[in-house]
Amino acid sequence: MIAKLKQFLTSHAQAVTPEEKAKHLKLAAVSLLLEVVYADQTLNDEEASLLPDLLTSALALTLTEAQALIDEAKSIQGNATSLYEFTNEINEQCTIEQKQKLILAMWKLAYADGQLCRYEDQIIRRTAELLYLKHSELIQMRNAAINALGE
């Protein structure tokens, strides 16, 4: 599926509209969030409810649009071979602040069930590295997520 998506993106690189670019970016971001959700092999109620909430607030989507995006990203994410497939799209289109917000959302999802799985931690750290974020930014976003849980 990802190979087909890459082929499609490559063949239509010149003809990609801004709307299509925005959709590809959203799919990449949601796919990374799903990587965190599924890292511990379980989808609990906290994570299941937090993901659409994060998308509606961060991307100004309706709940229906957010759920449709999640469903589409699930099919893409399930066939992915690496995080690079998603981070490359984000690196091309996002600012440092937007990348930090994505990492913050990933941390919030990881801590949603009250515990951090080592696989969740590894995925977030690897993603931050691929997004060229500093270690201090990664820790700052983690601390902000932990503080948000306490409120």
TrEMBL record:
Organism: Shewanella colwelliana (Alteromonas colwelliana)
One protein family per Pfam: TerB
Taxonomic superkingdom: Bacteria
Protein name, entry field: Tellurium resistance terB-like protein subgroup 2
Domain Co-chaperone DjlA N-terminal: 27-143
